[in-house]
Amino acid sequence: MNIDKDNNPTDGRGEWKQFLCRACGWIYDEKLGDPDGGLPAGTRYEDIPEDWQCPLCGVTKRDFELFIPRSINIVKPQINPISNTGGLVVIGAGLAGWAVIESVRVLDADYPITLITADSGNRYHKPQLSIAISQSKNAENLITQLATAESERLNIGLVANTFVMHIDTLNKQVRTTRGDFNYDSLVFAIGAKPVLPKSLLPKFVWRINHVDMFAKLQQKLAVKPNQLVAIIGAGMIGSEFAEDIVKAGHQVILIDRNALPLAEILPTKASQMVKDALVRTNINFLGNNTVSSIDKNENGQYEIHFADNDKTITVDEVVASTGLIVDGRLPNRAGIRFAPQQGIIVDNQTLQTSQADVYAIGDCMAIDGQACRFVAPIRQQADTIAHQVLDLDSEGYSHQTPVVRLKTKSVAVTVTGSPCRNSHWETIVDDGKTLIMQQAIEAGDGRVEIVADMDFSL
Amino acid sequence: MSHQISTNFATFYDKPLMSNTSLPLIAQWKDRPRLLQNIGDAAKLILDPIAIDKGYYPIKEMGELAKLGAFASHLSSQNNGFMTAIESTAQISKVCGTTGFLSWCHQVMGFYLDQSENTSLKNRILPNHTLGNTFGGTALSNPMKTWANIEPMILRAKKVEGGYRVSGTLPWISHIAPHQYCGAVATVESISNISNDLPFDIFFLLAFDDERKREWRLSQCPTFSGMEGSSTWKIELNDYFVPTDDIIADPAKPFIERIRGAFVLMQLGIGIGIIQGAIDDIRAVEGQLGHVNQFLEDQASGLQLALDNTVDHTRELAKTPFNPSKDYLLDVLDLRIQSAKLSLDATQASLLHQGARGYLMTSNPQRRIREAHFVAIVTPAIKHLRFLSHQLMTEITPN
Fold first, then answer.
1. CATH architecture of B141-253
2. Which pLDDT belongs to residue B1?
3. Is B362 exposed, middle or buried (0-12, 13-18, 19+ CB in 10 A)?
4. Do the chains contact at B389 and A216, CB–CB below 8 Å?
5. Euclidean distance between CA atoms B376 and B356, whole angstroms
6. In whole angstroms, what is the distance from residue B340 CA to residue B107 CA?
7. Most buried residue, A147, A155, A343, B390, by most Cβ within 10 Å?
8. Which of A113, A108, A68 is nearest to A87 (CA)?
9. Does the CB of B331 have a partner CB in chain A at under 8 Å?
10. Are the C-beta atoms of B62 and B132 separated by less than 8 Å?
11. Which element (helix H / strand E) includes B119?
12. The CATH number of the domain covering residues in B267-393
């Protein structure tokens, strides 16, 4: 044991350190270890075995980096929701919005900041939503900090449960359902919202994109075991969530219009391997099926109908993971260059939109014409914007495609580079358990590594 | 005075109408700039804003403005010129906010009839209504709030032979009087106990006529801070009979959802006129007081810029008054909030610019401030508009 009763180190190797997962943002704290992953409290990073995996996303320790918590100069909290001090206005209190606020506070303790958010603003780690139910986690467990406490700690004005109705970039004003706010700089951190085909009515299908809706579904699933859940869309979130629900003791039908899961990002051979692994976990995968409509019957169950056949499937709950889109209402009204599928178009280095002093970060932003909806690059994006807002010199943002890691346990899927759907994939390894495929460097350097856990059991 | 008006203005239309026929396209009203000019000139000539503010109901003057085309442009017979109707109200409101409010009341009552599928009712009432031979307002404040989850529906209806019997008391309804009418809504109570027999609402013509004299009662309201000339009454209905012939829409809700955007948008005319009047009041004292007024935050040029933006945005939204999208309605609600806030700011500024003379009870600024307060609190008030916007933007989830 290298830890005393007060949790201080006794091994003479200095203070406890923290390490950040570059793929998902989870923080490994040496003081706490990862007991569920076989690392007792007090396990030093150097002593972590090479085959240990990130408990959230499954990458190994090589994808971790030293995390130094920011020192923030705390001044007297100023919670003044309807102040009109100008300064920085941030719209959206997800990971991206809070990251910008943290970054500005590192550089300037007093610069006026107002956070406007449609939800409560409470902080949580969104990538956990698709793997939380099997860990018996509810919304309360997932929330790491309350917005009110954070607004005091970071000395910001918090305008929660408030919708932005309009943005007037000429007069630098944000108009909300609780009043109008002037800004010197504005940051869009509005995220991306689930896009539902017309056949999926929002009153019938759950979306796993926010802790509030997660909480409602989690409560319904907790009421009784072995419920039948249909998940429509077998992309990353759909596949992760399917495994999570099965592990939580329910039955899952995973429906996709394509023949195989993850068909939009993986080569066929890789998708097949993922499908086999999901099926081994008892997920009922229904490929080549397009849902045409859903009705609610008198027992409160949902009846799913299909476009290409007459069958009807009756289930207890329906979850849709049919892709994301950025809501164009505010970008359009602000007169900002915007593409619905990709998001708000920003300058690659400054992350400024087509309007002066207006920036975008995270899921709502398009860089190099592409959406980048992963957590890993957010810190650097936030740091860049903070320097811009405060008019400080910086090297600017340099975008790197993050490592994409599926958070399933039955099969490990890692994608690097920028896979190009129509380019040739060369098989490097294919031994039935491991599959490695690679695309040419000039075609985006896409690389897929899949390791199936043949012994996976629930 | 009527004779003088008719000879002064080329757009004056005083021909008699055939009964029970639809309103024709009136050629005199087609020249939009001349129409607006005439309405503005006539308003200045015939309206006495001080007397109206104190309680004079300008019904005769409304009749003359009607014959100049002030309440007609948005109707389908006149090719749905919604912006022209809004500008007509603004021309009137610039002179007198109370009459601007009456203009909107009269316009939307015509709009309900125009959009109704009850053609015989439309032909019976709308032509004379449009020409200001008869008058009526709108009692939709309560139902609008009901559908926005703000308060319950007040009027209750029972299905009876040949129509409905309606009871209930509405607190203050404007632009009504004996022998006038308004559009009103009642919830029809379930006649049976069958569970799927859901309650629904009817939208009907509520006429204060002699035949049903014992079924309705109008009583005086307490004195308001402004709008005293708007003929605002408390309505009590006691088994008031609504014949099927007088139904504007049944069920009411889909009809209202269709016209709701235009209903709110048309209110912009009241605010636009008041704001322009306030800016004119500021300019009026610039030569004399400009050397001190320069130290005030709000100046005529800045307010005019904000007003011009509001007018441009209104013109844009008035092109598609029936756009059913949520985004369109949110834009209308946002614009309505902005116009209310600008009304408050501009009228306040005008009093500060005019100083003591603006504080006289006979002055424009003190009156316009109270008119602007009305714009901010009349249904849908700023707080209602935000509450409704909040609901519209809240994500729908399964339950």
1. Beta Barrel (2.40)
2. 47
3. exposed
4. no
5. 25
6. 20
7. A343
8. A113
9. yes
10. yes
11. helix B119-130
12. 1.20.140.10
pLDDT score at A435:
95
In this predicted complex, what is the ipTM? 0.90
Other C-beta atoms closer than 10 Å to the C-beta of B327 total 14
Count of domains for chain A: 4
Q: For A165, which of B309, B389, B398 is closest by C-beta distance?
A: B389
- pLDDT-derived band at B181 (thresholds 50, 70, 90) equals very high
A40 and A119 fall within a common domain? no
Domain containing residue A60 = 18-67
Q: How many CB atoms lie within 10 A of CB B41?
A: 15
Q: How far is CA B192 from CA A298, B158, B159, B162, B198, in A?
A: 22, 11, 11, 18, 10
Cβ contacts of B398 on chain A, cutoff 8 Å: 203-206, 216, 317-318
Alpha-carbon gap: A144 to the closest alpha carbon of chain B (Å): 23
Q: What is the pLDDT of residues A411-441, one digit of tens each?
A: 999 999 888 878 899 999 999 899 999 999 8
Q: What angle do CA A281, A286, A290 make, to 5 degrees?
A: 150
CATH number at residue A148: 3.50.50.60
* Domain harbouring A44, CATH code: 2.20.28.10
pLDDT of res. A244: 96
The domain locations on chain B are 2-135, 141-253, 267-393
φ, ψ at A118 (rounded to 5°): -75, -25
- Rounded-to-integer distance, Cα A172 and Cα A182, Å: 6
- DSSP-derived letter for residue B173 is E
Strands A447-452 and A434-438: antiparallel
Q: Which residue of B has its CA nearest to A327?
A: B327
Judged by a CB distance cut-off of 8 A, whether residue B32 touches chain A is no
**By the CB < 8 Å criterion, does B395 face chain A?**
yes
Q: Are residues A62 and A108 in the same domain?
A: no
- Give yes or no: residues A228 and A376 share one domain: no
A 124-163 → B contacts, CB under 8 A = 163
- Encoded tokens for B359: 């504080």
B268 Cβ contact list (under 8 Å, min separation 6) = B86, B90, B310, B314, B335, B336, B339
